[in-house]
Amino acid sequence: MAGKTVKKDGKTWYFVLTHGKKDNGKPQQIKRRGYKTKQEAQKALNELEYSLTNGTYVKPNKMLYREYMVNHWLEDKITKVKKQTLATYKWLIVGHVLPALGDIELTKLTPMAIQKFYNQMTKDEQLTDENIQKIHTLINDSLKKAERWELVTKNPASLVDRPKAVKKEVIVWDVDEVKTFLKHGDKGSRYFIAFWIALTSGARQGEILGLRWQDVDFENNCIRITQTLSSDGKEIQPYTKTKSGTRTINLPKETMKRLKKHKQMVDREKEKAEPGTYHDMDLVVCTGNGTPTNKSNLRRAFSVAIKEAGVKKIKFHSMRHTHATLLLLQGENPKIVSERLGHATVRLTLDTYSHLLPSMQKETAEKFGKLLFNSEQDE
């Protein structure tokens, strides 16, 4: 038995659709109310019948987006991402997404509501553009999964444009500033070796703090990046950021000399330590008892070294940018620079340092001009 009815109920319209059968064999009737016009009710009836016929119908539920995100989506992520990544997800979702969208029913979440949320975040400037983009990625992923799990008929976030991020200028040191820092910044700090490695290798902070002596090859003047210190500083983790993350980086002989000197200091500390007090984790940059270095202490030591050297203040990560910038400006192949940095693609390297391209293009044109026309100019 099948049937369709559209009727008026006071000031509004409703419809009743009979389609298929219940588990007990009786006809299944679906009734929806609250339409302002007969046309609206008829359209809704037709859409419902179409979704039932094509198998795309999703039974309405009262689940809030908050409940879905916390009890289902985040729960599913526990086995799929690292602990620190999960902590970042929770920070963005609990602190920003749920206060704005959490009390909306999952099936009633609209592209307009999501867009309004993005606009408000951009206006409030409480998060960076990059973090707002991350939020979009999380919302989109959660609703894409809700669609696959047949909790919603369509992912509303797929209809919202990804928020734009204004690229910030990369602040770096020039050659003279690097030389000045390395010459005058060291006042005996045990952490200065970390700054030396950062400037001459381009390695990330976590990679440097996770570097072991067994990964330092004094014979071939190189280091091997195989593990990293987690963002919260609590765990040493195998390096899995990208396939290209695990890599070998050749270093200048001067850096290797500094490493040898630093190793002698670490070895003396091991020998002098009371039995049971030294935790030998084979780390290059470590505390006096061998444990991983606290990143706050490293930042403080970096600030002191900058002040001692009298150079402009930059962030630790900017030493990585400095390394890449100096290599590119001296004409190094971007592919080599990309490999040293552990970038997934050369394109990522070029996108990150695109501000250098105009000057590099000019120098290239001048060199090419000399190659072709130098003899004519001499004449």
TrEMBL record:
Q: Where is the Tyr recombinase domain?
A: 168-366
What's an example Gene Ontology biological process for this entry? Answer: DNA integration
The record ties this protein, via CDD domains, to: INT_ICEBs1_C_like
Does the keyword field hold DNA-binding?
Answer: yes
The terms under GO molecular function for this entry are: DNA binding
Q: Which family does it belong to?
A: Belongs to the 'phage' integrase family.
Protein name (Swiss-Prot/TrEMBL): Site-specific integrase
Q: Which organism is it from?
A: Cohnella fermenti
